[in-house]
Amino acid sequence: MADEEPLDAYSAAVVRVAKRVLPSVASLRVRGRRGEGGGSASVITPDGFLLTSAHVVEGAEAAEAAFADGTETTADVAGRDPLSDLAVLRARGDVPAPVVLGDAAGLQVGQLVVALGNPLGLSGSVTAGIVSALGRSLPTGRGRVVDEVIQTDAALNPGNSGGVLADSTGRMVGVNTAVAGVGVGLAVPINANTSRIIGALMTAGRVHRAWLGVAAAQRPLPPALAASLSRRSGLQVAQVVPGSPAAIAALRPGDIVVAIAGEAIGSATNLQRWMLEEAIGRPVEITVWRNGALVDVIAVPSELGD
After folding, report:
1. What is the C-alpha to C-alpha distance for residues 161 and 58, in angstroms, rounded to an integer?
2. What percent of the chain has a predicted confidence (pLDDT) above 70?
3. CA distance 139 to 116
4. C-alpha torsion 132→135→155→52, nearest 10
5. Band of the pLDDT at 1, cuts 50, 70, 90?
6. Lowest mean pLDDT: which of 58-72, 101-115, 217-231, 269-283?
7. How far is CA 145 from CA 65, 116, 142, 190, 245, in A?
8. In DSSP terms, which residues pair with 136 in a beta bridge?
9. How far is 119 from 146, CA to CA, in rounded Å?
10. Is 47 a known active-site residue?
11. With a threshold of 0.85, does the pTM exceed it?
C-alpha cells in the first residue's frame, strides 16, 4: 500500500483540533414549551457540567445529550442567562472529558478557528475558517448586547448553536451562537467576563447584575477632551430613571460618561462589563464630562430585577 500523503499544515491543525475536541461535544435534543429542537453543547467540567446557548434550551428543564463515543445521558438545565445567551446543564450520568477553555482576549483577526457541533442534526460536524472580526456586538434580550463577540467565516448552521469555537491548539475560545448572514457566523467569547457568568450559572443558577438606571449611547468626545484622555468616544446619558442609583448620584441627561473607577468607558458594552454582581451595593466613582468640565459623582448600583 502506498504511503499516505503528509497533511499540509492547515489540514493537520484542523485534524488535530477535531481529534481533541469532538469527543467533548454533545448533540442536544430539547423538548420544551417551544416544542422540540436541537443544538450543541460541550463538557466543561469532569463532574458533568455542560455549556450551551441559552436560546437552545429556552423553555426547557432538561435535554438529551449524545456524544461521539455513544455515551447518552439526560442533562438538567442548571442555569440560563438570556442576556449573554449562555446556559449551563448538569448531566445525570457520566460524560467524556471536558474541553480545555481558552481566552478569546488573545485572538487576532485572520487566525484559524474551528467550529464543532451538530448542524442540521448532523452530529460531529467540523468546519474551519478564520477570525473575520473581533469586538462585534450581538443583541440579546431587554435591550442588552453581548460584547466582544467573535465573527468567523467558519460555516455555521442551525444546530451549531451551543457548540465549540476552538483555536488551532484545541482550546475553546467561543460558544457558537448565531448566523448573521451568508458566510458570517458569531460566537460568544470565552473570556474573563463570560467565565464569571458561567461560574454564577454553575453555582447559583442565575446571574446577579448591577443596575444604574440610565439609557445611554456612544458618542465622539470633543476633540480637546479626546486628545487629553487619549480616547475618541464616551457614553452620553440620554435618560435617567427617576429614583434610580443614577438619579440619586445626580447623573443628568447630556452627561458623557468617560470612566468608571478610573477605567475608560467608551461604549455601552464597556459599561455592561461593570454591571455584574460584584458592583451591587458598592459605591463607585463615575467620571463625566459636563458643561465643559470633568465631574466625579458617586453611584451605588442596585440589583437588576427580573
Report:
1. 12
2. 92
3. 23
4. 150
5. very low
6. 269-283
7. 28, 24, 9, 15, 21
8. 149
9. 23
10. no
11. no
Does residue 161 carry a catalytic annotation? yes
24, 40, 53, 55: which is the annotated catalytic residue?
55
Rg (CA), the chain: 21
| Catalytic entry in 40, 161, 244, 267 | 161
Q: Rounded CA gap, 83 and 96, in Å?
A: 29
Let me know the angle formed at the C-alpha of 155 by 80 and 36, rounded to the nearest 5 degrees: 45
Tens of pLDDT, residue by residue over 185-217, are 999 999 988 998 999 999 999 998 898 999 888
C-alpha 159/C-alpha 125 separation (Å) is 10
- Rounded alpha-carbon distances, angstroms, from residue 196 to 5, 119, 193, 278, 302: 45, 28, 5, 10, 19
Sign of torsion, CA 66 71 77 81?
A: negative
Say if residues 186 and 180 touch (Cβ distance below 8 Å).
Answer: yes
Structural contact between residues 112 and 130, judged by C-beta atoms closer than 8 angstroms: yes
Judge contact between 87 and 77, C-beta under 8 A: yes
Catalytic residue among 85, 147, 167, 255: 85
Q: DSSP for 227-291?
A: HHHT-SEEEEEEEE-TTSHHHHTT--TT-EEEEETTEE--SHHHHHHH-BGGGTT--EEEEEEET
Name residue 172's amino acid. Answer: M
* Residue 208 is a catalytic residue: no
